[in-house]
Amino acid sequence: MKAILLTGFEPFGGEKINPSLEIAKALDGKETETYKINSRELPCVFGEAIDQLRLAIQEVKPDLVVCVGQAGGRPDLSIERVAINVDDARIPDNKGNQPIDKPIIQEGPVAYWSSLPIKAIVKHLRDAGLPASVSQTAGTYVCNHVFYGLMHEIRQSSIRGGFIHIPFLPEQIQTRPHMASLSLDDMIRGIETAIQVSVDYEQDLLLEGGQTH
Amino acid sequence: MKAILLTGFEPFGGEKINPSLEIAKALDGKETETYKINSRELPCVFGEAIDQLRLAIQEVKPDLVVCVGQAGGRPDLSIERVAINVDDARIPDNKGNQPIDKPIIQEGPVAYWSSLPIKAIVKHLRDAGLPASVSQTAGTYVCNHVFYGLMHEIRQSSIRGGFIHIPFLPEQIQTRPHMASLSLDDMIRGIETAIQVSVDYEQDLLLEGGQTH
Amino acid sequence: MKAILLTGFEPFGGEKINPSLEIAKALDGKETETYKINSRELPCVFGEAIDQLRLAIQEVKPDLVVCVGQAGGRPDLSIERVAINVDDARIPDNKGNQPIDKPIIQEGPVAYWSSLPIKAIVKHLRDAGLPASVSQTAGTYVCNHVFYGLMHEIRQSSIRGGFIHIPFLPEQIQTRPHMASLSLDDMIRGIETAIQVSVDYEQDLLLEGGQTH
Amino acid sequence: MKAILLTGFEPFGGEKINPSLEIAKALDGKETETYKINSRELPCVFGEAIDQLRLAIQEVKPDLVVCVGQAGGRPDLSIERVAINVDDARIPDNKGNQPIDKPIIQEGPVAYWSSLPIKAIVKHLRDAGLPASVSQTAGTYVCNHVFYGLMHEIRQSSIRGGFIHIPFLPEQIQTRPHMASLSLDDMIRGIETAIQVSVDYEQDLLLEGGQTH
């Protein structure tokens, strides 16, 4: 039985809802034969978000950590490949911080790879009829911040972890014509699938998932 | 009991599947208290597509006609507002025709409005958690061709009709990273909703659905 | 010597500048062997914009009218094909009007074609190294409103006219990462080219310029 | 007098031209009071591209290396922030290689930062009326491959270097409606500006250039 830590963020950027939090709530406590999910809410605040993630890791003692964040405008479940060691905020966070070109961990490496089986996840999501891609950038805001903080925290442990970006919910695009969205049901199904695949695959599959630029 | 004619297209542009046809098949014969659906497949061929639509209208004697077509790359259910009297083909149709700037109906008006309650449909789709927008252009290919042909055919009748563009299916974007798609279940649910709303609303709602450009 | 009426709009939607107005100012009074340009500024206000366009037509007595408007986010010079008889405002105009699904001209036809040689313009713009396409929709805001009003006004005259949408200027995208723009010099060169081509071509070229959806 | 090595790529992906090569040719031999440019063509081939870059560095003995590559579809000059240690090819390179998830340098770190003053470059490009942004990913194809290879090669030297992605030329989008492009003149002006700024700024400016996702 694997312990899973699943995190979602509070709303930010003027939104009233954050689909990542709705997914985390919906899956909190879910138990299968092979894993059990513990969900936590993270603040959309530089620094505090990593602090709370660290606490949650201490409490839950997870085998696997999946952090989820909203990427409004993206059309699919984006399985992030790499976290980079920089905060560069285009908009202030929920406490008004707007760091520019600050390292997340002073002495940390430039980047960390996700240790989730990202190609296997994309394959299984697509087989399940869900839009999914590998993403080569998680941005430079609080999502990448948490992703990098996570990978740094678990770098010498047996814990595996990674980050998944998700689209807006249909209710968030009511006044935005022709913007992409995904239903909450599909998102929940997608994150469940990603967790199951992460439990099942110790090693990733060798499948193409790159971009020419 | 309203008779509904629902049409989908055969695959085109190198695709092996056309989601509009899958929807039409899935809903063929569906009967509720207020309507019954008859589905037809249309060829992706200029001229022939309208001929077969005309035949289908004679056979089915519909109260309402909903034509559906694939708009690969669009992220939502696009309820088309207007059909224009021109064929201008960027790629050949399935019989190799590639008309440029030819009127669809020689003496026809420049354009016809959809007579579906397009704003009410968008509202109900969004309320049902589906991504949807009013679209101001159905293009200049076989979809617009059929849409214009339909509106011309029923212009002096009591039949109402219109056109809905749909995204790719997830299986169509396997090798296209970060392209939008929608599951077949959601598409079917969306077209059912659009038909139900069209039966329910004789008059459209006064809701914003425009674009600045 | 042809008299050309060229119009641009005042800024709207929170912008401090409108590239269409900068182009109109830059080309006002320009004279070649075959034409002379008279420029006018139009308000971004439903109704008033058409009123002022009508006055300008009476004053300038043009052979050719080219109206230009900003389409922030579009990456190229978009030569509009068709104007539709509806106002449907996603945002209020500069006087707070926000009409929804109102006809522009009560008894007007559904749509008018541009009478500019749109394919020839696109060809010459591309040959001049400028990004350009035919556009199948001018939206449903003040740009389409003026375009429709123009084509209605000149419908029984020998005056030819049409509408061109242009991207943001580089200075308008400073805080919008990875949004398209075009330099003012290129825009001016593009509109001059479009005017010259419109003077030179009484008949349009038969070139593909459509969209599949 | 600084020695500048400027590289462009041969065409790939079915294109007949590569704007990065046209820029490199146009600026080859250019000399100002502060720098002189030596240009080189790189093959669009994994492995060989880095080999030739290494040779060019030995020959030119540059103070500064700017590698340029085509990013068809992007609307602006993208100053790349970070190179990652992976090849993941969506399409084969010009010799048919299609590596998947292979490290570029077996024992290399996950990523290297650009050592160009990327924020200062973006600022000066925008001040010069050119569309520009910081980019958080150079992809996983030959461009990122060369970028990573460059930064690894110069990691312990005083040479500074980085990578810039550029849009299509207008001539490359003739059959692609509404795709972004930039004129060759603007591109050349942009790369010259980037080089001048790189020579002028030892330290980067502290300006926002991030993305939320």
From TrEMBL, chains A, B, C, D:
One of its GO terms (biological process) is proteolysis. The keyword 4Fe-4S does not apply. Its main location: cytoplasm. It catalyses: Release of an N-terminal pyroglutamyl group from a polypeptide, the second amino acid generally not being Pro. GO terms for molecular function: pyroglutamyl-peptidase activity. GO terms for cellular component: cytosol. Gene3D superfamilies: Peptidase C15, pyroglutamyl peptidase I-like (3.40.630.20). It comes from the Bacteria. Signal peptide: none annotated. It is found in: Cytoplasm. Keywords: Cytoplasm, Hydrolase, Protease, Thiol protease. Pfam families: Peptidase_C15. Removes 5-oxoproline from various penultimate amino acid residues except L-proline. Homotetramer. This is Pyrrolidone-carboxylate peptidase.
